[in-house]
Amino acid sequence: DRGLTPLGRQQALALAQRLLVTNELREATALYCSHLPRAKETAAIVAASVRHLSPVVTHDIDELRVGDGDGLTWAEFERRFGGVDWDIDPSVPNAPNGESLLAFYERTTKTLQSLAAQHVGELVAVVCHGGVIEQMTKFALGLDPGRRMGQRIEHCSLTEIEHGPARTRLLRYNELAGRLAD
Q1: Maximum distance among all Cα pairs of the chain, rounded to whole angstroms
Q2: What predicted TM-score, i.e. pTM, was given to this entire model?
Q3: DSSP, res 72
Q4: Nearest-angstrom CA–CA distance, 32 and 166
């Protein structure tokens, strides 16, 4: 993760502009982000549009951890460690010291449930990664944690999940509708 590309910056700025115009996160009481550079940069760009909240960095909402594969290109990662078939066994780590699909699900859902418990009845904004969104969407829909959903999560899209003691609901998913032009 080397941070946002020029296109990524444009997408984050478009999201920030949308949030300024729509005020859809005006009631947010907290803004959390992953510690990875692209999430921190995105959070910094949208923070002014979210009640000028300062992003709180949270390590356990980062993307799937690749352990010894960190810093490698995907081609080098695959050459060095091969591929893992999570359709056969979702408990197998992706690389030495990396995560399995099930471990990723457990880490992210536990962390986001903890954040929800700290902010009962509040709207909380989280700037994270597609994999984290996929895990929480599976949780909200009651899907098998060991299966991949397969849909592409769009950069700077909005997904809204309502989590409470009685139920968890997916209110919107991967929403780009209404995004202002780049």
Answers
A1: 47
A2: 0.91
A3: -
A4: 24
